[in-house]
Amino acid sequence: MLFHVQAEPSDLPVRVSVADATDDRRVLSARVDGPEWTLTVPADWPSSLYRARFLAPGQADADLPWPREQQLPGTAVSPPNEVYFVVRPAVPRSPVLLSVPFTTWQAYNRAGEPGQSIYWTEEPTRASRVTFDRPGGGPPPERWEEGMLRWLRPAGYTVDLCSNLDLHDGLDLLSGYRLLIVSGHDEYWSASMRDAAEEFVRRGGNIAIFAGNTCWWQIRLEDDRRTMVCHRDPMTDPSPDPRLVTTEWSAAPVNRPENSLTGVSFRQGAGAWGPYMPLILKESYTVRFADHWAFEGTGLADGDPFGQGTLGYETDAAEYTEVMGVPRVTARDGTPSSFVVLATADLRHWSAYGQGGAATMGVFTSGRGTVFNAATINWGNALDDPVVDRITRNVIDRLSAPPGPAEWEVIGPAADMVAVAGYARSLFGVGAGGILHVRELCGQNLPWRPIADAGGVRCLDVPREAAAGLGIGLYGVTPSGVLRHRPLPAGSGGWTDVCRAPAGTIALAIADGRFYAATTAGRLHCLAFADVPGAAWADIGPSADAVALSGMTGRLYAMDAGGAIHTRLPPGGDEDEWRTLSRGDSCVVPATFTAHAGRLVTAGPAVPLRWRAV
């Protein structure tokens, strides 16, 4: 690693002191005799963020005081005799990789100086190109990343670090990890950085964003990544490719809202700047989904405040509506429909201090991966709060774990349902009181909504398509053994009788144009749609002691009284016997279940509504 020392010959030699910036442990002292100094990183240095200080004779090597009273970002730059750098391992030594936002640090370097900085946004004298080959460029005085960096190692986490410049064309790097952590203020992303991160998630990697204002500006990197280009104004950017114009990601002509990567955006968020930054210390999140795994062990309930001091100085948010008192994203702003709102903060009053808006903590899935977003810059500096600490551990522990069997996730409160079935994006349920209910089939903790009489049925399923004169709709069996049908969408008709069902039918599934009924005698019966007029059900073998059945993509699924879930193909397939997918202890013996859209869904009066991927 080559360092250039800007000093008069008469000022040489100078001393250099290198320390681990996460704990201030000094790791090297050396003498520099010329304008260049080469550092060969020892093999035993752990992956970390390091700080090199170049000291004149007699100059003390001491930390500058951290300005606890927040200032306008970049109004004080890192000293010109300091250089920050990351040591990245040659091969991954941890499942977790943390990215340090050098692009944002460099954007703020010499903030407000004409032609020297990308700041301030509205100033016509701001630079459109800045180089990394200049003094400064360390963290702004608020040190938004410092809290997380200093917390990880004492908290028991061994984490590899990289520069966010390493994410540019960085899919190969990311592929060696389970979890990427984005912390603090990571505002400037190139298209290649973003492409790599999004593909990493689609392939099964996870991202935890303990940050705000994330991926707000698109940049281009030139001169072998030593120059950062960000015009901000698309009118002045000469790029012939509209996809690479350096403006806000969500703005024309780029039109690629950062929400698809992060789940949220500063466009909906809030900011309090300059002398108003102390507002950070007053605001709190409100819990909106306390049963979610992110809140496990916190003792919080829906409606509780938490995390005072985490919100600011900028936050991100998603557009959502309230559904019977529960938030549900609209997905109109680019936020994925799979985004689950965990906590919210109303910060509209910040319009008097910078930007009014909101903060939305949440989590979503994309492909095989998961993204969690705390949606605020100051999260890492509030890790001394036990609740903030526990949420952070929950996220890191779950998202960094080795790949394994799909886990059950809570998606709603417990409800006394005796049968459930999915259709399109809706989940229907028959309540113990004989009422048909519906809710959107999604990860958000939405309540059930009663819509009609359940027609006396005690089991449900829905065919994938109409066949042999039988239409799509809800099918169920009554205790007296009558197979009944109700058209969908809901409201298009009432229940009608179809035919008789086998005696003792307690569960129903539909697969590949056939009805399957499980009985109290432990037998499985089959009736093709075309044979409904004669109702000649055939006994095709054991039912896996099913108390609930469902069909999905031509396959049968059964749940027994102990909560274990089994599967097989219908007769004529390669699997003519049941095999077990999950043991009952993971389901805590719910009352019923269904299979739909690649997921298993369980429900019951004593346990929350849950789902998992097949």
TrEMBL record:
InterPro entries: Class_I_gatase-like (IPR029062), DMFA2_C (IPR046540). It comes from the Bacteria. Residues 35-384 form the N,N-dimethylformamidase beta subunit-like C-terminal domain. Pfam families: DMFA2_C (PF20254). SUPFAM superfamilies: Class I glutamine amidotransferase-like (SSF52317). This is N,N-dimethylformamidase beta subunit-like C-terminal domain-containing protein. It comes from Spongiactinospora rosea.
